[in-house]
Amino acid sequence: FQAFDADGSNVIDFDEFLLALRPPMSKARKNIINEAFNKLDKTGDQVITVEDLRGVYNVKAHPKYQNGEMTEDQIFTKF
What pLDDT is recorded for position 66? Predict the structure, then answer.
C-alpha cells in the first residue's frame, strides 16, 4: 500500500495508482518529455501557464474557434 500511496495520505488517488503501475520511462523518453515541457514553458520558470501556451499555440485553426463555439481564452483554459 505504501508503495502506491506516494504522498502518505493513507489513500491511493488515480495519479498515484497510475504512476505505480506505469513502467519506468527510459532516459531518452524523459529527455523528449523535458524538451517538450521546455518548449511550452516560454518564460523558463518551470511551470506552464496559459500565457506560455499563447506563445506556442495558435487557436485560430481550432475548429471550435473557427465556428464561434469557443473564444481564444476558453480554448487555452480548456487545454
Answer: 95
Find the mean pLDDT for residues 9-17: 89
Q: Would you say residue 44 has pLDDT above 80?
A: yes
Distance CA 4, CA 54 (A): 36
Q: How far apart are CA 23 and CA 29, in angstroms?
A: 12
Whether 59 and 74 have beta carbons less than 8 Å apart is answered as no
Cβ(4)–Cβ(11) under 8 Å? no
CA–CA separation, 26 and 61 (whole Å): 34
Residues 6+ apart with CB under 8 A from 47: 41
DSSP state of 4: T
